[in-house]
Specification:
mainly alpha
Length: about 150
């Protein structure tokens, strides 16, 4: 927990990102009714890549001047986070509500903490542990409520 201008800026960015991903899922739920997973994913990932390329050109960022470890990280993000992770969400859009999928994204932070613990030898702080418990309880309550309403 932190109170500062930098923390507030990060909170605002997180709030905006949550709104954008929710809008993406709402649009995707409608589009996925008529479009299969692969074309939908190609359109989504392709348009994102084009947007980021234009942004990088506008900001005069290099496309190639990165270390080998950075390239491996980028490949890992592309393959694991995007192709496996995001594509699962895109696949689920056809069968689950946007609300359930949006809520399930909260589990990503838990997975990140666990992976960092095992892969990077990072410790899970008391605050993170409490956060994990709160998120899991919140998800359980939400999913139980969803089950009752259906």
């Amino acid at each position: 927990f932190q109170i500062s201008g930098q923390a507030l800026y990060g909170d605002i960015l997180a709030f905006i990102a949550a709104g954008i991903i929710t809008a993406y899922f709402f649009i995707g739920q409608s589009v996925r009714k008529d479009l299969s997973l692969v074309p939908y994913s190609i359109i989504g990932y392709g348009s994102s890549s084009i947007f980021l390329a234009v942004y990088a050109l506008f900001m005069q960022e290099s496309f190639f001047d990165y270390s080998a470890s950075t390239w491996w990280s980028l490949v890992g993000l592309a393959v694991i986070a995007t192709i496996f992770g995001q594509t699962i969400f895109n696949w689920l859009l056809k069968w689950l509500s946007t609300t359930v999928i949006s809520m399930s994204i909260l589990g990503e932070t838990i997975g990140t903490c666990i992976l960092a613990y095992f892969i990077l030898d990072e410790m899970i702080s008391v605050q993170q542990g409490i956060g994990i418990i709160v998120i899991l309880l919140g998800l359980a309550l939400f999913l139980l409520q969803q089950r009752k309403s259906h």
